[in-house]
Specification:
Length: 81
């Protein structure tokens, strides 16, 4: 996939846990999809845990945007979940 302003990388987490350390993505973007929840980042360190329909996002550094159906966009910063 290619975004107008850079490269887009998307990971699909079917179950389990993924830890991401995304540095200096330039104009690119990274998304982690866990079912109907999407976490988008441009340079940070975070973990997504999925067990069935339950999804948790833990931000170690930086900032991510979490989107889920029927919920508003949620911005999480370092130390938040």
């Amino acid at each position: 996939m290619r975004a107008p302003d850079g490269c887009m990388t998307e990971l699909e987490l079917a179950s389990g846990r993924v830890s991401v350390h995304a540095r200096d993505l330039g104009q690119g973007a990274l998304r982690v999809r866990a079912g109907e929840v999407t976490v988008e980042v441009r340079g940070t360190r975070f973990t997504v845990v999925r067990a069935g329909d339950h999804v948790e996002v833990h931000v170690d550094e930086g900032h991510v945007v979490v989107r889920a159906p029927e919920e508003r966009e949620i911005h999480l910063y370092a130390g938040e979940r």
